[in-house]
Amino acid sequence: MQKLKQTIVKRKSHTTDEGTMGFHDYVEKKEDFSEFVGRVTDACEAVDGKILSVSYPSEDVAVILYKWSDGLH
């Protein structure tokens, strides 16, 4: 039987304090976009099925939709 499955890949980020002289200035640092796309590509290559689509609903998330078969037709 064939099923539709999805894999979600999220962009890595962390918060850092860039404040000076006792003041706090918290800034979110995101993973470089080219590294994120590389991780999405690796996730696509690891999929065991037929990829139907890859979408980026936002700059921080990728959704891979694929058809997967459990061997029972």
Care to describe what's here?
The chain has 73 residues and is α+β, with helices and mostly antiparallel strands. It has 1 helix and 5 strands. Strands 1-5-4 form a 3-stranded antiparallel β-sheet. β4 and β5 (61-69) form a beta hairpin. It is rod-shaped.
* Category by helix and strand content: alpha+beta
Global outline: rod-shaped
Share of residues in helices: 10-25%
Distance between the termini: 5 Å
Topology diagram in text:
Blueprint: E1 2-10, E2 13-17, E3 26-30, H1 33-46, E4 50-58, E5 61-69
Antiparallel strand pairs: 1-5, 2-3, 4-5
Main attributes?
73 residues; 5 strands; single chain; 51% strand
Short account of what is shown:
The chain is α+β, with helices and mostly antiparallel strands and 73 residues long.
